[in-house]
Design goal:
Blueprint lengths: L11 E5 L3 H12 L3 E6 L12 E4 L5 H10 L2 E4 L6 H8 L8 H7 L2 H10 L7 E4 L2 H10 L4 E5 L9 E4 L5 H7 L5 E5 L5 E9 L5 E3 L4 E5 L2 E7 L5 H17 L4 E10 L6 E8 L9 H4 L4 H9 L11 E9 L6 H6 L3 E5 L10 E10 L3
Parallel strand pairs: 1-2, 1-4, 2-3
Antiparallel strand pairs: 5-8, 6-7, 6-8, 9-10, 9-11, 9-13, 11-12, 12-15, 13-14, 15-17, 16-17
Length: about 375
């Protein structure tokens, strides 16, 4: 496929990863007439139930990767903790969007911060950490409390330890697992927002309206649109995401999580992290916009036109975490709400099981 030839309906989209994001992408792909082939290691893979084909194999199974590459027309991924090597191998055989570079940067918190800083963007004050001694030294330089985060494999607040006093550092280093990390000051943000941005291979971008995100115990709890931030703050946030997407030569949907520090038009925006994929804080788009983030991503990687993501409704997305999902009979009956369940077979505390979009007519 070249950038000026859209992938025709009937083509097969390969998705790396079998979780809920893969499932929601697969459904969106089906709505545009594509077939979907999931590649995922053995486990609970709710995406497989809605796809035409699946390869269940290890990320580094070369034979399986070659067979998969041969069976699909384009490859994308639904989460960033896939070995870079897997995507590198596939990219030699088939187009992969977003590319290896975006994956490599987004899976490493240090690379993410280095990139943001090199683009002149604000981030929380931080230091790279490779040893207990590094951490002890950083804890005297940075304003405490600070958060120690493993460089790789963190999600939903996992791999993070709060450091309140300089004498806590040895224990924090032990808890994080003595792995390469970054430590960053805890930011007294006013709100958290994110940008859900789509970018086509021709460099065209489309941004959804900005959601305001609330987290509980490190896990996203709700995303509300419109966000209670001034219009100029939203515009600056989108400009930041566009700058990052351009620097990564990005194709697909990119999410940028930001802290809003201070109030009003002069508030400062700090980049928290980037996700090279559709994002939980964009799940409201399915029911409040003419085109969802999932369809937008499929369109971008297939070289299709990117429509204006017109929002027709105000909305709050609420994650159903762990046992929350057991309330499904009431949630399914709730007026003005749309329930999305992921089909995961096991309920565990902290596990994302579904989400609910509560929609009202758009007021602003
Ligand atoms: P996810 O993948 O769900 O986005 P994650 O595990 O990658 O989460 P982060 O986004 O780094 O983790 O942190 C999760 C949440 O913890 C943030 O959205 C924010 O609410 C809080 N948090 C993280 N870092 C900071 C910080 N430096 N200052 C204040 N709050 C923070
Ligand atoms: Mg995050």
């Amino acid at each position: 496929m070249t950038s000026d030839t859209p992938l025709p309906p009937g083509s097969t989209i390969g998705i790396l990863g079998g979780g809920q994001l893969g499932r929601l992408l697969a459904i969106a792909a089906a709505e545009l007439g594509f077939s979907v082939h999931i590649f995922a290691p053995a486990g609970d893979n709710p995406a497989i139930g809605v796809a035409e084909a699946a390869t269940v194999a290890d990320w580094l199974d070369e034979t399986a990767l070659a067979v998969f590459a041969n069976a699909v027309d384009v490859v994308t991924y639904e989460f960033e903790n896939i070995p870079e090597e897997t995507v590198r191998r596939l990219a030699e055989m088939v187009s992969v969007y977003p590319g290896v570079n975006a994956l490599a940067i987004a899976q490493d918190r240090l690379a993410e911060k280095t990139m943001a800083t090199s683009l002149g963007l604000g981030v929380a004050p931080y230091a790279p950490i490779d040893s207990a001694a590094d951490l002890a030294a950083a804890a005297v330089k940075l304003t405490l409390p600070a958060i120690l985060k493993s460089r790789w494999l963190g999600y939903d607040g996992k791999g993070q330890v709060l450091i309140e006093r300089p004498e806590d550092t040895d224990e924090a280093w032990r808890i994080v697992g003595a792995v390469p990390a970054v430590v960053e000051s805890r930011v007294a943000f006013r709100t958290e927002i994110s940008v859900i941005l789509a970018r086509g291979s021709n460099g065209e971008t489309r941004a959804f309206d900005i959601p305001e995100n609330r987290h509980e115990r490190g896990i996203l709890s709700t995303s509300t649109v419109p966000a209670a931030v001034p219009v100029v703050i939203g515009e600056r946030a989108i400009a930041i995401a566009e700058q990052i997407a351009a620097a990564l030569d990005y194709v697909g949907v990119l999410a940028v999580e930001l802290f809003v520090v201070g109030e009003g038009d002069s508030a400062e925006l700090l980049v928290n992290e980037i996700a090279p994929r559709v994002h939980n804080s964009g799940h409201w788009t399915s029911d409040a916009c003419l085109v969802s983030q999932f369809e937008m991503h499929i369109r971008a990687i297939a070289g299709w036109p990117l429509p204006d993501p017109i929002r027709h409704s105000d909305v709050t997305m609420t994650n159903l975490i762990g046992a929350d999902v057991e309330g499904w009979p009431e949630l399914a009956a709730e007026r003005g709400a749309r329930l999305h369940l992921y089909g995961k077979s096991i309920v565990r505390p902290g596990r994302k099981m579904g989400h609910l979009n509560r929609v009202t007519p758009r007021r602003n």
